Amino acid sequence: MPLPATxxxxxxxxxxxxxxxxxxLQLQDVLLEVLAYGGIFVVGFLVMRMGVGRFQTGxxxxxxxxxxxxxxxxxxxxxxxHARDAGVVFDQPFTDGTCLYYRYAVKQYVEKKKRDEDGNVxxxxxxxxxxxxxxxAPFYLDDGTGKVLVVANAGxxxxxxxxxxxxxxxxxxxxxxxxxKQIDTSVDIADAVPAGVEWEPYNLATRLEAKLPFGSIxxxxxxxxxxxxxxxxxxxxSPSSTSGRILKRRITQTVLPVDEEMYVYGAATERxxxxxxxxxxxxxxxxxxxxxxIVSDTGEDKLASKFIRWGLIYLTIGLALSALAVYLFSxxxxxxxxxxx
Length: 341
What we know:
Number of strands: 12
Largest sheet: 5 strands, mixed, barrel
Structural class: alpha+beta
Strand order of the largest sheet: 1-5-6-11-10
Helix content: 25-40%
Number of domains: 2
Radius of gyration: 26 Å
Distance between the termini: 25 Å
Order of helices and strands: HHEEEEEEEEHEEHEEH
Strand content: 25-35%
Number of helices: 5
């Protein structure tokens, strides 16, 4: 009578473990291989999870019916309109004009030389960020039927097109003076939040980020750390101290200009003691049910296609990495250790 499959697997594993103990060097090599293959598998799984999230976001955007401000229902919503200031605007970091959201970075390209174990000189060139910040102000979405406050400082994921991204690279250590813009650092986003407006972080990541002293958690969809107050920080244009040679400098910014046509996915909630029309009693913040809060200067269809496309790309890459890890594990570990010789 054949043994059950589970029992056969267990006995094979025990037999392999016994033989591995008899050959400790072999065990050490196998453990290192297992860790390496396990790492590849975990990375693949995480990439797949990112892909699933992006694909689901694209489907949510595509399947949610857009509403008009005058007829918004409480709960998940999707709106199109123009971004109007709510009393606070920012200077664009490196270009002329004002904005309601920005992300900037000042970088340097450094060359370092070092010797390897054989005494040969190796050259390494890398970009590093020396100054950066991102900040969003609450603003009104105006669609012609009314306007509603979007609490974008509550951890929104800004999806901004290349049209509103500026990058400039310079040779040498210095950034030319004409690009060293001084911005207004006196404004505070708290001044754009009317009395009676309260918001809470809409998912686990934003709840954690709201309590942390640094920026948003890497890997989350939240482009801006949730904050109830905050002011612009003057970019630092000076080069950072380094043991290498600075070859290039770079500045880059992404902005949502005032009065720009835009799209919002989130949830409509009531203000405290709210009365009157929608624009007096509702705000837009993150959707608790789906964990999404998206602000974009891209139309709904194009944005949904972007999320779905990248979701499928991430899924494919993650699946390939996980499959590769399983193949290598079975080929090396199972064949070399568990199969009797």
